[in-house]
Every structure is written in C-alpha cells, then in structure tokens.
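Researcher: Here's a chain I'd like modeled. Treat it as a single chain, no partners, no ligands.
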Amino acid sequence: MEADAFVSRRTSVDTPGVDSRVTGAAAGAEFRWLGGRLLDATGGFVGSLSPRMSGEQDFAPVLHRATPETSTSVEPDSDYEGLPQGVATSTHMLAGAVAGIMEHCLMYPIDCVKTRMQSLQPEPGARYRNVMDALRQIVRTEGIWRPIRGVNVLAVGAGPAHALYFACYEKIKFSLSDAIHPGANSHFANGVAGCMATVLHDAIMNPAEVVKQRMQMFNSPYRGVLDCVGSLMRREGPAAFYRSYTTQLTMNVPFQALHFITYEYLQELLNPHRQYNPSSHVVSGALAGALAAAATTPLDVCKTLLNTQEAQAIHVIQAEAPTAAGAVRAATASSPGSRHISGLGKAFRTVYRMGGVQAFFKGVQARIIYQMPSTAISWSVYEFFKYIITKRQHERRLRGDRDGDK
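Model: Modeled as a single isolated chain. Structure tokens:
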C-alpha cells in the first residue's frame, strides 16, 4: 500500500498527531498496515490508528502522489455515504431496484398470509390462528405454490418503484440536510425525503398491489395475472387500480416518515461513523420496520379492503344504505357507488361496522413479522450494492489518476 497516496480520514478526532508523522515520512516511503499500526519498509513504527467497526482500511484518497512509479495493488476505501457528491443517480436506482425486488419476493408468502388475515369476514377454510398455521393450511389445502401466486406482478412493479424511491430519498435527504444542518444529519430532512419518495413509489406500486392482493385472497377466481388485470378492466374500469392510492399514501407517508427517522436515528447510535456495517443496517432496518408497521396497521386494513373489495363488506354497505322507499333501495343497490367501496372514510366506517375497533388490528402480527425482515433485507441489500458500486467506481478513478500521472 502506498502511504503517499492516502491519509487518515478522521485523524483529527481519533488519533491526534498521526497526520504529521505519516505525511512527514511519505516522500518515497512504503508503508504496511499491521494490527492497527503503520510500519515503514524497514519495519519501524510510524503510528497507530484506531480500528474501524467493519474492519475496513481507514484511508481516503488525496490529490497528490509523490512516487507513482512504485505503485502496487491498491485497496481503496470509498466514502459510500457521500454518493450525491460524486456518483450518478443511477447508482441509487440500481441498488434500490435490486433491494426492492429481493425484499418483496423473499417475503411474499408472509405478505399473502397478511392479506388473508386482514379479511373482515373470512371463509371457514381461511380462518387461521397465526402466521405459521396459515402457511401450513394454505400449503396443505391449496398446494405448495399457492403462497407465491402473483409474485411475478409484484417483482415487475417493485424494480422501478424502488429505484425511484431510493434515488429520490437520497437526493432530497442530502440536499435538505445540507440546507438545514450543513455537514450533519437532520431527522426532519429524513422524514420529508421519505414522504416525497413514497409518492413516486406508490404511484407505480399501487396497480401491482391491487392485482397481487386480488390473487392472494382465498378462492381467488383469477387464473393468472393477465386474467386478473383483464377482469378488473372489464368489470371495474381503470379506476380499480388506483382506488386505494390516496389511502395507501395516507398509510405510507407516516409509515415511511417514521421508518426513515427511526432507521437514521438507530444508525447514529449503532453506526455513528456511517461506514458499511451490515449488522447495523439489518438491526436498524428491522426495528424501524416493526415500529412503523405496528403504528400504521389500521390504515393497512383499510387499504386491503379497498384493494380486494371483499364481497361481505359490500353486502353490508348495500344493506345499510339509507333509502326512503323500496324503489330507491333497488336503484341504490344497482348504482356503481354501492357495488364498490371507495375512499378512506367509507373504508373506515365499513371496517368498524363489521368488527369494531379490534378489526383495525387484524393481521398486525403478520404485518410486523413481514415488515421486520422485509425492511432489514431492503436496507442491507441496498447498502451493500451502494457500497460495492461506489467502491468499484472509486477504484476506477484511482487507476485513471495513476495512469494520468505516469
């Protein structure tokens, strides 16, 4: 490793005085890193540096190079949290797309169980005690592939949705943080960035969510994704794909604000130097997802009702529709408004009429069990790919600098 090409990133805080020893001996000298110490070519002691949490080398590139002709293999360490200053938005989009697809596909069986457990009046064959009991019954009675039916439409939607989601979040987070607290993290900026990213994410994901949940329901009448899409278009029109959009935004805006604020706060506690640290990303993501999921379960129940248009719930709405005479009742029952449940207010009233307050927390266990590993997978995969992509781009820049010096 060339000492003339690197200096410590945080020596002014962690190891006072190391910079002067390193730079003073840098001209033409070769150094080795051993056990937290810098040794010169003869084995003499130069200085010690505090070890990093993830075991990475604690160096960053500088602009000058004293002896380029003696360069050997370099193991650079890039500051992947500083992406907006040096890396294209495509880095965030690629990392986010991979994270979103993996998150939704790996956790899809639990998502299927959550959808069924949120049914307000489930069929006798779809009454489950808990998540594991639901999975066992579904596999035993409907086949081993039933819990992942409809996963393809979710994978198609999750890629572009999460690409825009993470790219928008990173851009707004850094821009707003710099405006509010230059050089520091801002919880307000994190929350606002999460909310804005959610608007783009849900605009793409909402149609996929509608199709997915229709296919997840017990005794779903659809043969496949295309059959479901065609049937919805014929019977309910294009509006069916966005009937729950406002409700989903109403749920996801507080969910994502709470999620991102909690994640960034836990990162400050567990990973204060913001290095690539997989264990901190997993723990922070899981806890943030669990807290946000529990708090927004009532809205998720309403969203599921709007997406699935459960038949029993529609019967309740039709039976309780205020009418003045039998003719008016017949006209109301045949009107489009009585055949569909639309709007958050109507969904809330329907859920309360059919199950009271406790109905708003149907499937809360499945939702938390789904969100904890889901957000842990999403953040860990996103941070991993962001780190790898950035490191490779950083290595290419270093090689270009060396070639230019030669």
